[in-house]
Every structure is written in structure tokens, then in C-alpha cells.
Specification:
The complex is a heterodimer. Chain A is built from 14 helices and 20 strands. By secondary structure, chain A is an alpha+beta fold. Chain A folds into three domains: 221 residues, no CATH class; 189 residues, no CATH class; 52 residues, no CATH class. Among the domains of chain B are: 96 residues, ATPase, nucleotide binding domain (Nucleotidyltransferase, domain 5), CATH 3.30.420.40; 147 residues, Dna Topoisomerase Vi A Subunit, Chain: A, domain 2, CATH 3.40.1360; 114 residues, Dna Ligase, domain 1. In chain B, the strands form eight sheets. In chain B, strands 13, 14, 15, 18, 21, 22, 29, 32 and 33 form a nine-stranded mixed sheet that branches. Chain B has a six-stranded mixed sheet with strand order 3-2-1-4-11-12. In chain B, strand 13 and strand 14 form a beta hairpin. The longest helix of chain B has 31 residues. Chain B is globular, with a radius of gyration of 26 Å. The chains are: A alpha+beta, B alpha+beta. The interface between A and B is large, with 118 and 93 residues. Strand 7 of chain A pairs parallel with strand 34 of chain B.
């Protein structure tokens, strides 16, 4: 296998990995001078302002965009970066996009500073995953902020645009074998110059889209976010001086690094790995592939590699940018939870040793447009598993910050298209399952439908919002029960399930749906794995007749008809007025042996109807009497028996190394 | 002599304000009695009667109007003391209120907590799962029936909730009921028939807005607080009636108006959180007298800092609220709050070696170190004491001596850790606290496209007048008013007493441009009729009803964004509506930069609102006739050394007794004016002037070069 040493990480043949010192054209002057002293009070006032500027950038995008995926699911990110593209503040949005902004900005500094040049009022647009996005739809905008003739810092955002072209509505091209079957890939180009949007570049981007107006509104929302952030940073510099503000930026990164370092000091040296298997590189492929992340902790540094991942194949790849982003997301939540989104200091202590040519770090021309729903959540889950094992080995109280694996399935993603009830073409990305769940930790249960930790501000759309936009009726949306999936000494929060029929149209195409063949979220230190994501479809049902007769069907098994076998990464499915279909976002992973679960906690789930008597016995060894109460003595006996049976059945493992 | 009385029952104090027939104002305060709010109210009335120089029975008997603001609903909610409530939901959607759209874990929390899943959780549900009943029925997005209501199921559900589970209240929230309320109405009739004593409310009445989660929350909270709120309103009304009040008790609403108690009990949600609104309405009344069109109303108390806005003489309206991590939609005057007040804790951030102030607070218990109640961590109030802005002897009129030495020790210990002296540290704490307050104001103004330099700041509440000299100056506003001067700490009560009857009616109905004018005119006409009829029912009607009409507009598909646009009166023609669309597009560009909107993107109008107002008569506020000399010797208390955080130096500063200041008095800074429940700091280059209404105006002499931190959108991108 090739090693990292003999390849060029240039963003062209291989993902861009920036050198420690960037090669920037001398015609561009960077503002680097820092005030030697900033008193602690001024420091805090400026730091607070910078953080709020970034939040305002994010809320501007959220308010003005019109795609549900952006405004509700928060599938975007924004950041303030130093003059050399180090990410300073992230917002509480899709975390793995944070570092992609840094990579894109650094690439621009190295590759665009000579031609066409980087000037005040410029905005660069990039959709190139080899430069630094997770997939083409996550289009980045980055804009230099000048003070006088010097480049002071950057403001940047990445937004998921609903359709940016390519062969498939929504631009997730499951059938792609290479990048030429994907939507177009634009390396950084000047969308705006001297504060003015270039009509030619804007058209070049929008012309590719099936949803020109929607994408146009979202693009303007992203531009407005940059304007707000840029304007406020200039006011801050006007007031306090460039050198003082710069000193605060650097000190904030230093402080973030120190805080991260303190956490690392509580972790023993070692190597932790997680491996997630996935199926099908393109629809119809029976293959099984491996995503693997390994973390080596040596002293004050973490080394991340993806050794063990399968060679790149079909459409299930992500670039280096995806690998870095997906790894930093769980690191931020488990080891930088107290930094309010300061990520740049963390990156300094994390070094990557990527293995190229793999599905978790592919080379050009690997296809990547489907990464947003397949690879990215899978690699986040893989990295979460590795980080959680490492953190669970730390000294208390850090140990309790470990979070078990979540959501290898892109929150039950379902992408569909057709004509809506108003006769207009649309591409829908269902956000119903964005209600998510927080997995278990070594110290507490997760949170039922508590959101996704790696998209902290995310929320599910209301059923009514979906039904207004799309020609569907949601028959139910309800929480899963807390059975075996995600059980443990501390259990995962439960996920949810949704079911639909068509309403107001007679035809839709399901482009993407999640129907896994096996569970992907392994349990943490003895906890049960999560559940399996599934998407079920029945045709020729009597759902419409039941509705008209006054019954709202509450399960696929309650309607007649024929179930259509669906596959993970299956071919598009056609929906008609007799169809009824469901999506299930499974419970995530549990922590610790379910036999160690506190009886009072089991009782609460029983009383709440979340746990059946049968599962209480089978999963937790808890014996429930006729009054619905856990019998403490009989449970102790039952648990002792379970342990004896386990020992009796145990065999010595064989290493395949 | 007749009186116009407002009472505001807050968490700590119950405030009372009265105006007599001659327009003279009186104020009083009493401790709030948590177990029986009426006691605190009568204590405050007794104190108020003393101020007015009459017996309390005489005061009440000669009162022409009595308005009451209360936190009783909020307390029920936060302390989980509301009614046992059941929920009827559409089949398949009973979990909506439990799932909270996945954001219930973080809704309304500080953004920093978003990164820390282990310390966030959902709140306990108000309606536990076993009290939720799903009912077979279904409407679609056009309000057309997809599945009929199963009435037997409703009856069974209601019987089970009432007989087996003894619920005291029921909430009915079905999908799309705001488009077609028929099923909710039918279900309500069944509840009324089966369980006539159980309070019930429907989502189409409480919050007729799209979004089943938020609508269900509104309805559940409403039912949850209703029985106890209604009992409280009735008890207060009865007691006042027994004491001789000859008029209906009026209850303060978040709409900024009041409603008779008999009407307010119908939907008690509209009274929930009306406390901060009282202060805003008080500011509004005062701003109209003073001719201030644009006002930033700021209320800094012990734990929170609340900001409301008055733009062109109208308070800004919001339609979303988060209480206890539960989000709902309800028309209300916009007030935004952050944890930033006298009790905010100052702590060291060990990694950067800097000081952070808030959001954690010492609250009332243990409170600041100087309160001697066991607090050990320094707070903003401790910094005030160390600097000399607050006197350790005359706090609360001398009734609560403060421990300055303890405050000095706590702040010195904090400063030691970052190498700052005690005064530098205390000054730093105030600078950070003021910067946070200014940041909130900035977010509320600049983000909406307003320039703070066009505004006056009104500062009230326990800590507002003391800190306004800095946070207001930071923003570069025109000046500061401490409304009612000595009455600034009872401004909410005053606001209640000045409120009018207000009813809001709202209907969510989607219109794409170009709008169907007939349908729009018809919808507006129906809503107006509804509003007039409701006013008539309250025996307040006829020609006096003022009707204002608004609509919510957005670019097509922008679910999370809207602008409220005023609709002209009367029958709308093509040109009228074209004008409204033009106003929308230009407001949008003003807010978000020229070219932010895409011209080709259609505009939609998705909700119409009608506000009915009946203005309640009250005397004109009396003015002090005698313009006194500028020198305020009569109020002079001496001098004190104060370390001014904006100057970073200790200066001999003059002290005054606010209650002895008169119209025309001018006080040049550095000075502190002591009031019974707060103090006003007058910085260097600032002048405090007393006007004829008893307001104190703090004017700045803006120093050139000290450019304010904010500005308008000077660097937006343009298209084409």
C-alpha cells in the first residue's frame, strides 16, 4: 500500500492536506502583528464579540435560506478563520463541515493568491471535495477580510444546497463509479469581486441546478451571512485596533489548545480502533466494505489514521476533507465540550496519517456526491466509536464525557422528488427523523429523541411543514421503544419512526432511503449495539380506504398489500397512491452491561410504556411481577443465572492478526 | 379623588403604582407572598394608600380602574404546580410533544451548552405519556377532511382521563386544526358534555399557527396553568370587590394590553410572562409623553437583563416564546432576555487567563458576597460595592447594610489569579457585564436593521439605572431616560395601569403573489368582525374600537423567516397590495443588504392579523409647574470616592437623594443619585436632568474618536 510520504496531497489528484507553512504569493500581505499585551478584560470583551459575530453569521443563513435542510436541519456551518485559514470559532451546526472551511481557505491562499489574486470584497465559491468539502452539495463560500491593504482574517460558510446538478435530483449520485458521473465539481472561483457578485459566476453555479430559484435564495442567504460577519469584524478592528483583535484571536486558539491538552493529560497513551461495515458500493453490489478509524495517543498529540478501510469503490467514498471533518466532530464533543465552538486549538494537537485510495480517504477521480448520506455519517460513527473508547479509558471526570456511537444512517435520510401538490417540481429531503437521539454515556442514559450530538442545533421539521411543502400525509411519527437496541447499564436515547402515504399527487420517486442489512452502531464497553435503520414499502395497500373509513393506519402491518423488498443503497423506488412506507431511525448504542442496569431505571421505562415485560427479562434480566413491578430478589437470581450461562457459553477468542 | 391603579406581582416584590384624578403618581412595594399572592398585593396596596395619604379601603373604593400583572402562570409552570392535564392528539402524533422536534434538549439555552450533551436534557413532560390519547381523525394542509373524527373514541378517552386519572384539564391539539377547526370543536363539545368541570382548550383557539409541536405546547401550557390561574384571578377579583372595588379587575396580557378577568380566564396563556411587558408598556406611555419615537427599553435585575424595543412609537411584536425549553407561538410584545444582572458571577477562565462574567448567577440565594447570605463567589453587585457605585450603608434605603470588606476580599482573590488589582478587577467585571448587555441590545437592533444611534435607552429595574451610563454609552445611543426616576423600580406596575384593552386575532392562510384580492379582503373582513364582536362582548365596543391590520410575509418557502407588514385600512385594491409587496422587498433589503432577496423569487403572504384596541381613558400625567434652578443642593448627601470603570480612575463623586430632586435640577457627573430600590450612576462628561414628569434624563457628551462599536450594514454585498 502507498504511504502518506510518497503522494502529493494537492487537492487535485489527491485530497488537499495543507503544509504547516503555506506557500502564498508575496503580492498578498497578511496582517500578522499582534499586540504584545491584552488585558484580561479587553480580551474577554473581544472574544465574546467574535463568538457572537459567528453566531449571527449562522442565524442569518438560517433565517434567510429556504431549503428545509439548511434552515431546519442546520446542514451548514460557518466560521471565523485566521489570516492563514485556521478555524477559530465554529457554530452549533453540522460539525464536520467546520474543518472543510479551513482546508478550502488554505488551498485558496496557496493556489489563488497569485492568480486571480485575493482582494478586498472577494468571495470564493468551491464545491470541490478534493480541495475541501465533504461532497459537492456542501458548497463553501469564503471571503477575506482586509484591514487596509493587509489580509486580516477570513469569514466562511458551507451550506448544503438542495440540488447542484448531476444525473440525479438532489445530486446524490448512488450509481456513480467516478467523479464524472457525479454533479460538477468547481474548484475555488471568484463568485464576488470588490463587493459585487459576478453574474457570470453566479449563473455558472446556478445553471447546473434543477432548483435554480431555491439554490439562488440559499446562496444569497449565505452571502448575507458573510456580509454580516465581515461588517462586524471591521467595526471591532476599528474600535480596538487590528493588532489587539488579532492577539485575542491567537490567544483564544492557544487557550483552546491548552484546554484540550489538559484533557489529553487525563488519557493514557494507547491506540483505539473502531471498524464499521457497510454494504453495497453501488445499487445491486453485494459487497461488504470497511470503514476504520484508529487513534493513537502519544503524549500531547493524537494521531489519526484510517488504516484498515477498504480500497475506494463505487459511490461510497469521501475525501481527506471528509475524513478530517468526521474525526474532529466527536473529538470536539467529547474533548472540547467546554470551548463553545473554538476548534482551531484542538486541531493543533491532532495529526492525520491518512491512508489514501480508501473509501474513507479517496483519490481523484473517486465519486463522492453521495457521501453526505452514506460516508460522512458512517465515518463520524466510526470515529465516534474510536474516540469514545479512548475517552472511556480516561481518568474521571473526563471518562463520563464518552458518548457511544450514533447514527451511521444520516438520520434516517429519505430523499425524494416529483411534482408537489401545486404542480411544481421539487426535491425533498425528509427531516422528520432529525429528532435523533443521544446515545448512552458512562454515567448517564442518552436522551430520547434528543437530537444529534454532531449537529447540535439540528431539529426536525414539523409534520405540518412537510405536508405543506410536499404531497404526503404523515400517518404517524413516534418514538421507538427501548428494547434490546441500545440497551446497557446506561441505555441510548430512543430514535423514532415515521410513516407516509401520498396525498395530492399520484407519483413520486424515492431517490435515497436507508434500509440497512445489519446494525452499524456498536455498543460501548459491553453496551448493546443500536438498532438497524430501515425503510419499508408496501404497494397496493388499503391505507386510503382505511383513512376514508375513519381509521388512521398505525403500522405497516395494519394495512393490506405487498411489501417490496428494499436494499441499502437500492435503486430508486416508485411511490403511487396505493403505497405506504415507513422510515425508522434506530436507537443508538448503549454503554455497559445491561445486567448492571439500575432497577429503578428499568422500572421507569416499564411504567412509561417504553420497555415491555418481555424485553425487561430478556435484555436486562429483570423479573417483572403481575403488578408491573420489578421483583428485586428474583431479578438478582435471574441476573446471576444469566452470568453463569454466559460463562458457560464463552469461548477463547482467536486473533486473526 | 379617583385612582387608576396598576399592580405587578413579581417573583420577589409586588409593586404598585397609582395615578389620581389630577394626574399625580404614587408608588409602593411589598414583599411577594408566594403561598398567597393576594396577600402581597394587599400589602402593596396598603403601602400605596399610605403614599396617597388615604386609607386602603378608601383607595380601593375610589379606584376607577385596577390592572394586575402577575407571574402566577410562570410560577406554576416552572415549579411544576399546574393542573393534572390530559392531551387529545391526532392518531399517530401523540408523541410530538414528547419528541420536541429533537431540539427540546437545547431550546432556549445558551449556544455554548449546545456543544456539551452531557449537561443538557429535556424538561420533564407537562403531560406524561399515559395521559396522552390519540384520536382517529385527519385533516390535510388545505383543511379538507381526510378521515372523520371518531367521536366514540373521544368520549372513551375523556372518560378514561377524567375517571381513571382524575385530570383537571384537557388540551385538544389536532393536526391542521388552524385550517379547519371542526374536529377540535367537536371534541371540545364532547369534553364539555362528559366532563363539564374540567377545563379544556383547543389549539386553534390558543395558538392558530402552523407547526403542530409549537401549537400543542401552547395548548398544553394553557390548560396546565388554566385552573390555578383562573382561581387566582377570581380570588383577586373577589377580594378587591369585597374591599369595595366597583370595576372589573383587568389582567395584564403579553399583547401589551389588559383584559377583564372574566375574559382573561378563557385563555390564561396570554397572561403568562406579562411581567417584562409591563415595563415595556410603561416605557411606551412615557416615550409618547416625551416624544421619543425609538426606544430601547432595558430592565436589568438580579439575574436577567431584558430588552424590548419601541420603533416609530410602536412596540415590536414577536410570535415565538420559549419557556422552560418549551417553544410555542403566541403574539406578544417582544422582550429578549439574557442571564446578565447584578447577581452574575465572575469567574476565571484558566486556559486564557481571563475573566468571564455570567451566565451563571448567584441569584437571590446565596446572592452576592456582600449580601452576607453565604455567597462566596464575586458578582457584578460586589464589583459595584467595591468601586463605590453602590453604598454599603444606604442599600435598600439603609435596611440592608452590605459587607463591603467581604466583597473586596472576594474580588481581590479573583484578581490575584490574573494579576489584576482589586479595583481593576471590579472595573473589569463591570466592563464585561456591560459589554454583554450592549451585545444583546446590538443583536436586537442592528440585526433588525436599526441603528442604536437613533434610539434612546430607557433603563429601569434594580440594576439598570446603575449600569446604563456604561452600556448605553457603549452603544452610542442618543441618551438615557430613567423613566419616572424614583418610580423606575415599579415601572411595570405603572405600565399595567396605563394599558388599554387589546385583542389580537390571527389566521394562517397562504396567499401567493399576485394575491387573490377577493379572498384576502374576505378573510380580513371576517377577522375584523370577530375582533369587533369580541370587544362588544366585553361591553367595550362601538366606534371606539380601533382596528389595525397586519400580514406576515416572506419569500416563498422561507418558513423560518417573516416580516410583519401593515395593511392599509378598508377594502384592498391591486395598488394597495402592490404597495405592501414593495414595502416587504425594500424592508428585506434594508435588513439583509441590497440584493439579499432574489427578485425572481415569489413573495407569499401566509398569515393575517387584526389587532383591536379600545383606549382606556386616564388623566394626563401632572407636570411639576415650577422649573427649579439647576443646582440640586437640596438633595445633596455628600461625596464618596468612586472608582469609575470607564475612566479607570478614582474620583471624588457627589451623592444625591433622588427623592428630593426637582424639575430643572441638573447633576453633572461624576455622581450617584440614590433611589429607594436602585441608584443612578452619572459618569464623567454625563449630565443628569430632572424633567417635569419626574423622569431623569442622562445625557452624554459624546467624545470624538470614541467610535461606537456598532454600525449599520455598511459592507454588504451588492448584486449586479
Amino acid at each position: 500500500m502507498e504511504t502518506a510520504q510518497n503522494v502529493v496531497w494537492d487537492g487535485i489528484v489527491r485530497g488537499y492536506a495543507p503544509p504547516d507553512v503555506l506557500d502564498i504569493d508575496p503580492s498578498l500581505t497578511l496582517q500578522t502583528a499582534e499586540a504584545a499585551e491584552v488585558d484580561p478584560i479587553t480580551y474577554e470583551v473581544i472574544r465574546n464579540s467574535l463568538q457572537n459575530i459567528n453566531l449571527e453569521h449562522g442565524s442569518t443563513i438560517q433565517k434567510l435560506s429556504i431549503s428545509p435542510i439548511t434552515m431546519i436541519v442546520r446542514d451548514f456551518q460557518c466560521a471565523i478563520l485566521t489570516e492563514v485559514g485556521d478555524v477559530m470559532f465554529l457554530g452549533p451546526y453540522l460539525l464536520y463541515l467546520g474543518n472543510t472551511l479551513g482546508l478550502t481557505t488554505k488551498w485558496i491562499l496557496e493556489n489563488r493568491s497569485a492568480s486571480p489574486g485575493i482582494e478586498d470584497g472577494d468571495v470564493f465559491l468551491s464545491t470541490d471535495p478534493y480541495v475541501g468539502s465533504s461532497h459537492q452539495q456542501d458548497t463553501g463560500l469564503t471571503s477575506p477580510v482586509f484591514w487596509g491593504s493587509e489580509l486580516f482574517c477570513w469569514v466562511s460558510n458551507s451550506v448544503h444546497y438542495s440540488d447542484i446538478g448531476g444525473p440525479v435530483p438532489g445530486s446524490f449520485c448512488l450509481m456513480s463509479q467516478d467523479i464524472w458521473q457525479d454533479p460538477p465539481c468547481f474548484p475555488p472561483m471568484k463568485l464576488a469581486e470588490g463587493g459585487k457578485v459576478r453574474a457570470d459566476m453566479e449563473d455558472l453555479f446556478l445553471r447546473q441546478s434543477r432548483l435554480r430559484d431555491t439554490v439562488g435564495m440559499d446562496l444569497h442567504a449565505a452571502l448575507a451571512g458573510l456580509s454580516v460577519a465581515r461588517g462586524r469584524i471591521l467595526k471591532l478592528i476599528e474600535r480596538y485596533g487590528a493588532e489587539t483583535v488579532k492577539a485575542v484571536m491567537k490567544r483564544t486558539l492557544d487557550a483552546g489548545e491548552r484546554a484540550f491538552q489538559e484533557k489529553l493529560d487525563m488519557i493514557p497513551d494507547g491506540r483505539w480502533s473502531e471498524r464499521v461495515y457497510t454494504e453495497a458500493s453501488v445499487p445491486g453490489d453485494p459487497g461488504i466494505y470497511v470503514s476504520q478509524i484508529n487513534i493513537t495517543k502519544e503524549g500531547d498529540t493524537l494521531y489519526i489514521d484510517n488504516e484498515g478501510s477498504s480500497p475506494q469503490v463505487g459511490s461510497i467514498n469521501n475525501t481527506y476533507a471528509g475524513l478530517v471533518g468526521a474525526t474532529l466532530a466527536p473529538l470536539t464533543i467529547m474533548l472540547a465540550y467546554d470551548l463553545g465552538g473554538v476548534s482551531g486549538g484542538v486541531s493543533r494537537r491532532v495529526k492525520f496519517r491518512p491512508v489514501p485510495g480508501t473509501i474513507t480517504c479517496c483519490d481523484y477521480p473517486g465519486a463522492v456526491s453521495a457521501a453526505g448520506v452514506f460516508n460522512m455519517p458512517m465515518v463520524v460513527a466510526t470515529a465516534t466509536g474510536a474516540v469514545a473508547k479512548m475517552v472511556a479509558c480516561a481518568d474521571p471526570p473526563l471518562r463520563e464525557k464518552a458518548i457511544a456511537m450514533a447514527d451511521a444512517q444520516a438520520y434516517g435520510g429519505w430523499i425524494f422528488s416529483g411534482l408537489n401538490q401545486y404542480g411544481q417540481f421539487f426535491v425533498g429531503m425528509s427531516a422528520g427523523m432529525a429528532a435523533g437521539a443521544i446515545p448512552a454515556s458512562p454515567g448517564r442514559d442518552g436522551v430520547d429523541t434528543g437530537g444529534l450530538f454532531w449537529v447540535p442545533g439540528m431539529e426536525a421539521a414539523n409534520v405540518e411543514e412537510n405536508e405543506l411543502a410536499w404531497p404526503v400525509l404523515t400517518l404517524y411519527r413516534r418514538e421507538n421503544s427501548a428494547g434490546a437496541a441500545g440497551a446497557g447499564m446506561y441505555r441510548s436515547g430512543v430514535g423514532a419512526e415515521e410513516a407516509w402515504v401520498l396525498h395530492g399527487t399520484d407519483h413520486l420517486d424515492s431517490q435515497i432511503y436507508m434500509n440497512e442489512s445489519f446494525v452499524k452502531n456498536q455498543g460501548l464497553l459491553g453496551g448493546n449495539p443500536g438498532g438497524r435503520a430501515f425503510h419499508r414499502l408496501k404497494q397496493q395497500t388499503d391505507a386510503a380506504a382505511q383513512l376514508a373509513a375513519g381509521t388512521v393506519p398505525q403500522g405497516l402491518d395494519q394495512v393490506s398489500g405487498d411489501e417490496v423488498p428494499l436494499f441499502y443503497k437500492g435503486m430508486p423506488a416508485v411511490l403511487d397512491p396505493t403505497s405506504m412506507w415507513t422510515t425508522n431511525l434506530p436507537n443508538f448504542a448503549g454503554y455497559g452491561d445491561p445486567l448492571d442496569r439500575d432497577i429503578a431505571a428499568i422500572q421507569i421505562d416499564l411504567t412509561d410504556g417504553k420497555l415491555s415485560t418481555k424485553d425487561a427479562l430478556k435484555v436486562y434480566g429483570a423479573v417483572v411481577n403481575e403488578a408491573g413491578q420489578v421483583d428485586v430478589d428474583r431479578t438478582a437470581e435471574q441476573r446471576a443465572m444469566c452470568r453463569r450461562e454466559r460463562l458457560a457459553a464463552a469461548t477463547v477468542g482467536v486473533s486473526h492478526a | 379623588m379617583g385612582y387608576y391603579i396598576g399592580v405587578d406581582g413579581g417573583g420577589t416584590f409586588t409593586d404598585a403604582a397609582a395615578m389620581d384624578d389630577e394626574g399625580r403618581l404614587f408608588y409602593a412595594k411589598a414583599a411577594t407572598t408566594r403561598d398567597d399572592f393576594a396577600m402581597g398585593m394587599f400589602d402593596a396596596l396598603a403601602a400605596l394608600a399610605e403614599e396617597c395619604g388615604v386609607e386602603v379601603s378608601e383607595l380601593i373604593a375610589s379606584t376607577n380602574r385596577f390592572s394586575l400583572g402577575t407571574t402566577v402562570g410562570t410560577n406554576l409552570l416552572v415549579e411544576r404546580l399546574g393542573a393534572r392535564t390530559g392531551l387529545l392528539a391526532t392518531a399517530g402524533h401523540g408523541d410530538s410533544i414528547l419528541m420536541m422536534r429533537g431540539s427540546g434538549r437545547t431550546a432556549g439555552l445558551e449556544p455554548e451548552l449546545f456543544f456539551h450533551p452531557q449537561i443538557t436534557d429535556k424538561p420533564e413532560p407537562l403531560v406524561p405519556r399515559f395521559l396522552i390519547r390519540e384520536i382517529d381523525e385527519r385533516m390535510d394542509c388545505l383543511g379538507q377532511e381526510v378521515a372523520p373524527l371518531n367521536v366514540e373514541q373521544v368520549e372513551r378517552a375523556v372518560r378514561s382521563l377524567v375517571e381513571e386519572h382524575q385530570v383537571e384539564a384537557i388540551a385538544i391539539a389536532f393536526l391542521w386544526s388552524f385550517k379547519n377547526p371542526a374536529h377540535e370543536q367537536q371534541a371540545l363539545e364532547i369534553v364539555r358534555r362528559v366532563a363539564p368541570d374540567v377545563y379544556a382548550s383547543c389549539s386553534h383557539q390558543v395558538s392558530p399557527r402552523m407547526g403542530e409541536y409549537e401549537r400543542t405546547v401552547a395548548t398544553v401550557i394553557n390548560s396546565y396553568v388554566a385552573p390555578a390561574s383562573a382561581a387566582y384571578f377570581r380570588r383577586a377579583a373577589d377580594k378587591l370587590h369585597d374591599s369595595g372595588l366597583d370595576h372589573p379587575l383587568l389582567i395584564m396580557q403579553v399583547s401589551g394590553g389588559v383584559l377583564p378577568a372574566a375574559k382573561a380566564v378563557e385563555v390564561p396563556l396570554t397572561a403568562l410572562g406579562s411581567g417584562p411587558v409591563g415595563g415595556l408598556i410603561g416605557s411606551l406611555a412615557m416615550s409618547r409623553q416625551l416624544g421619543h419615537a425609538n426606544v430601547i427599553a432595558t430592565d436589568m435585575g438580579g439575574t436577567s437583563f431584558e430588552v424590548g424595543l419601541i420603533i416609530n412609537g410602536e412596540p415590536l411584536v414577536a410570535d415565538e416564546n420559549v419557556v422552560d425549553q418549551r417553544r410555542y407561538k403566541l403574539l406578544q410584545l417582544q422582550t429578549t432576555s439574557i442571564a446578565c444582572g447584578g447577581g452574575s458571577l465572575a469567574r476565571i477562565d484558566p486556559h486564557s487567563g481571563s475573566i468571564r462574567v455570567g451566565p451563571e448567577s448567584a441569584g437571590a440565594q446565596p446572592g452576592p458576597v456582600c449580601y452576607r447570605r453565604g455567597g462566596t463567589e464575586p458578582t457584578v453587585t460586589d464589583a459595584d460595592v467595591v468601586l463605590g457605585l453602590l453604598s454599603s450603608e444606604s442599600f435598600l434605603g439603609g435596611r440592608m447594610p452590605l459587607d463591603r470588606d467581604a466583597a473586596v476580599r472576594a474580588i481581590a482573590a479573583l484578581g490575584d489569579q490574573v494579576g489584576l488589582g482589586v479595583e481593576e478587577t471590579a472595573a473589569g467585571i463591570l466592563r464585561i457585564n456591560n459589554a454583554r448587555a450592549a451585545e444583546l441590545i446590538r443583536q436586537q437592533t442592528v440585526v433588525r436593521g436599526y441603528d442604536p444611534r437613533d434610539f434612546m435607552v430607557y433603563a429601569y429595574g434594580g440594576a439598570g439605572p446603575l449600569h446604563a451610563f456604561a452600556y448605553a454609552h457603549e452603544l452610542g445611543v442618543k441618551g438615557v431616560v430613567i423613566p419616572l426616576g424614583n418610580g423606575a423600580s415599579t415601572l411595570s406596575a405603572y405600565g399595567c395601569s396605563t394599558s388599554n384593552l387589546v385583542l389580537n386575532f390571527e389566521r394562517e392562510e397562504l396567499f401567493f403573489a399576485p394575491f387573490e384580492l377577493d379572498r384576502l379582503n374576505r378573510a380580513l373582513g371576517e377577522l375584523e368582525e370577530e375582533a369587533r364582536a369580541a370587544m362588544f362582548d366585553m361591553r367595550a365596543g362601538g366606534d371606539e374600537v380601533e382596528i389595525d391590520r397586519f400580514c406576515l410575509m416572506r419569500y416563498r418557502g422561507q418558513w423560518l423567516h417573516n416580516l410583519v407588514m401593515r395593511i392599509p385600512r378598508g377594502h384592498l385594491g391591486t395598488e394597495d397590495i402592490a404597495g405592501v409587496v414593495d414595502d416587504f422587498r425594500s424592508s428585506y433589503d434594508t435588513l439583509y443588504g441590497h440584493g439579499a432577496g432574489v427578485v425572481s423569487q415569489g413573495v407569499e403572504l401566509f398569515s393575517i392579523r387584526v389587532r383591536a384596541i379600545v383606549r382606556l381613558r386616564r388623566p394626563t400625567q401632572a407636570m411639576e409647574q415650577q422649573f427649579g434652578k439647576p443646582v440640586a443642593d437640596q438633595a445633596r448627601l455628600g461625596s464618596r470616592d468612586i472608582f469609575w470603570p470607564d475612566r479607570m480612575e478614582r474620583l471624588e463623586s457627589r451623592l444625591f437623594d433622588g427623592s428630593r430632586l426637582h424639575y430643572g435640577n441638573r447633576i453633572k457627573g461624576p455622581a450617584v443619585v440614590e433611589l429607594p430600590y436602585t441608584s443612578i450612576a452619572v459618569g464623567m462628561d454625563q449630565v443628569l436632568e430632572c424633567d417635569a414628569f419626574g423622569n431623569f434624563a442622562l445625557n452624554f457628551e459624546h467624545t470624538p474618536g470614541a467610535s461606537p462599536v456598532v454600525g449599520t450594514q455598511s459592507s454588504t454585498l451588492t448584486t449586479g
